[in-house]
Amino acid sequence: MRLIRSTVARAALLGVSFALVTPSVTLVQPAIARSAPDSFADLAAKLLPAVVNVSSTQTITAKNGPNMGPEMPAFPPGSPFEQFFKDFLNRNRPGGGGGGDNQPAPRRAQSLGSGFIVDPAGYVVTNNHVIEGADEVSVTLQDGTTLKATIVGRDESGDLALLKVKSDKPLPTVDFGDSSQSRVGDWVLAIGNPFGLGGTVTAGIVSARGRDIHQGQYDDFIQTDAAINRGNSGGPLFNMDGQVIGINTAIFSPSGGSIGIGFSIPANMAKNIIGQLKEFGHPRRGWLGVKIQQVTPEIAESLGLKDSNGAMVAGVTDGGPAEKAKIRGGDIILKFDNHDVKEMHNLPRIVADSEVGKEVPVVVWRDGKEITVQTTLAERPADEQLASTDAGKPADTTKPTDIAGLGIKVAPISQELKDKFQLQDSQKGVVITDISPNTPAADRGLKPGDVILEVQQTQVTAPADIQKQVDAARKADRKNVLMLIQREGGVQYVPLALTKAPASKDKQPG
User: Fold this and answer.
1) Which of 81, 193, 246, 301 could be bridged to 237 by S-S, CB 3.0 to 4.6 A?
2) How many CA atoms, within 13 angstroms, populate the side-chain half-sphere of residue 244?
3) Is 233 a catalytic residue?
4) Of 268, 240, 47, 269, whose CA–CA distance to 178 is shortest?
């Protein structure tokens, strides 16, 4: 199954002394569904004029070479077919036509999608992938009028774009609705330009909410079974009040055609971004400046949490809002601006939807209790500015210390280890020098050379620090101990199951 952006692109009886006892029964009222509309025609007629076709063209320069076009079949020398195929291929290659040096000529590629008008002044919403890389963009109205469009702003991360067209008369519009009020099972209409056919109406229901289809960190799609095909991208998904509750963006399909699994960007997410594109020309998302990881049951247990909700801070960006608010690695973010963070993936969306410059409360779990800090959100930098560097490769040393029950041996960082394992001069922590098989450390994929930075959210600089924290966790009857590990791929919190420490080998009095 492929993900495709939809562009041309029982009761028990008890016998006691022969008396029949019947348990009480709670009657469940049957669910009553609202009947389907007799017709969607009136609603469709009202909405169709505001839905447009979006066409974009891009110049593609063909490169000359052996892979340019099909090769001529091999014929015996002098075969009459030889010249025939040579002439045919010359005429059909880019820049061909039978003359000159047959250099490739630029070609024009066209993309067809959909959009909808949200302002009588000519503002049109569509998907970014519909117009990405375009040299020219045009919009065709329901009456066949074609207008040249300019790109007001684009949001690559959220796959949204805002266009502007000029018209000598006010244009019909549609409004955004509250997508949070749409329930699974609600009727919806999709209108768009499938396969370039022009305004096409399909009906279905909301099949699911909050879908993550791994297209980006802000995934929160509405799933629908209304038929969506290539060319529907950028088109609106309407509720029965004629409000836009989603922007049709992608489909799951083995063939490129609709199989009843389509995805739409929720209106509540889109309208904020569209407003920013109109005002600033680019999206202005809130930014906290943290790297996060999922809170597993083992991590939760090791920190005394009752459940595995929240997002664990695995790192803090220097100079970012989180650092200024004293948020630190190992904190579990439970609430952000009064929104519960149920799992890691919720946090980026909540932060991104928050106003830049707004001061918000953040509830974190630290040292066995909840604390609240205040942070002022910044604007999310461009992706290239967020690139980070991580240090480190594995290590080994003489005189390693065995951390009983975990299956690891560790050593302080020395110049010998830095040289041998290419550690940076500024590297902090304690190096793992050996991993015993079939132990908690081996089960978690640790390996010699991983660097332990923290244990139970406490910084460690020597093997004794690690042993102290492990002993304290055992004394507190923890089932897991939490370590912050640095390796080539970055830093990550890793919970290790605590087994009983081996019995002492000291001689007993006789």
Assistant:
1) 246
2) 30
3) yes
4) 268
Which residue in 55, 111, 114, 129 is the catalytic one?
129
**pLDDT above 60: residue 98:** no
| Domain assignment of residue 338, yes or no | yes
| Total count of domains within the chain | 4
Residue 78 lies in a domain: no
- Are residues 257 and 339 both part of a single domain? no
Q: Inform me whether the pLDDT recorded for 396 exceeds 50.
A: no
Helical H segments across 97-216, by residue range: 128-131
* 7 within some domain: no
**Strand pairing category for 244-253 and 236-238:** antiparallel
23 residue type, one letter: P
DSSP 380: P
- Specify the pLDDT at position 20: 44
Could you confirm whether 345 is annotated as catalytic? no
Catalytic, 450? Answer no
| Residue 54 and residue 152 share a domain | yes
Give the Cα separation of 454 and 55 in Å (integer): 55
Q: State both tokens at 357.
A: 């410059």
Decide if 239 contacts 245 (C-beta within 8 A).
Answer: yes
Q: Tell me the CATH number at 310.
A: 2.30.42.10
Mark whether 293 and 363 lie in a shared domain. yes
What pLDDT does 60 receive? 66
Q: Is 106 helix (H, G, I), strand (E, B) or coil?
A: coil
- Among the listed residues 155, 159, 331, 337, the single catalytic one is 159
The answer to whether 173 and 191 have CB atoms below 8 angstroms apart is no
For residue 35, tell me if it sits in a domain: no
